[in-house]
Design goal:
With about 150 residues, the protein is mainly α. It has two domains: about 70 residues; about 70 residues, Methane Monooxygenase Hydroxylase, Chain G, domain 1. It has six helices and no strands. Helix 1 packs antiparallel against helix 2 and helix 3 runs antiparallel to helix 4.
């Protein structure tokens, strides 16, 4: 079963990589490119290729903030996914800042007992344990040229 899942992710990754390249060449609207980048990041995330996932997510981030709205429920979920990638890479400061940003949005978009909001709140609490967290703008972006051959 694991082989099948890996093959599914790899097939999705190849398809989405083509979609990203086509959208870039066609100079499509940023929202279309952002969605393809987010899905490509999710495929890498699912495969455990966290550096590649981070690069695609960070490239999509400003476009998604614009197209989804920086205070939207969908953007909060995207930030949660990005925070999970940071956590998997042991970049706990970036994870805490991103979970914090996601949680701040979820306080307005999700019920207090929503399982996703509770998961984000728990992850944020574990990472911060009462200490202050740098603002998300202080997180340096990953250079997409340096994310390795797994693209």
């Amino acid at each position: 079963m694991l082989k099948l899942q890996r093959a599914d992710y790899d097939g999705a990754r190849l398809f989405l990589l083509r979609a990203v390249r086509i959208r870039e060449q066609a100079n499509e609207q940023p929202a279309q490119l952002a969605r393809a980048l987010r899905l490509l990041g999710a495929a890498h995330h699912g495969m455990g290729s966290f550096n590649a996932a981070q690069g695609h997510y960070e490239r999509a981030r400003p476009m998604l903030a614009t197209s989804m709205g920086p205070g939207s429920e969908q953007y909060a979920i995207f930030l949660r996914d990005l925070a999970q990638v940071y956590t998997a890479q042991s970049d706990f400061d970036a994870a805490a800042a991103t979970y914090g940003e996601s949680l701040e949005i979820m306080e307005h978009t999700h019920a207090s007992n929503d399982p996703v909001r509770l998961q984000v709140a728990d992850a944020f609490k574990k990472l911060t344990d009462g200490r202050s967290v740098p603002p998300p703008a202080s997180i340096p972006p990953v250079d997409p040229k340096n994310i390795g051959p797994e693209i």
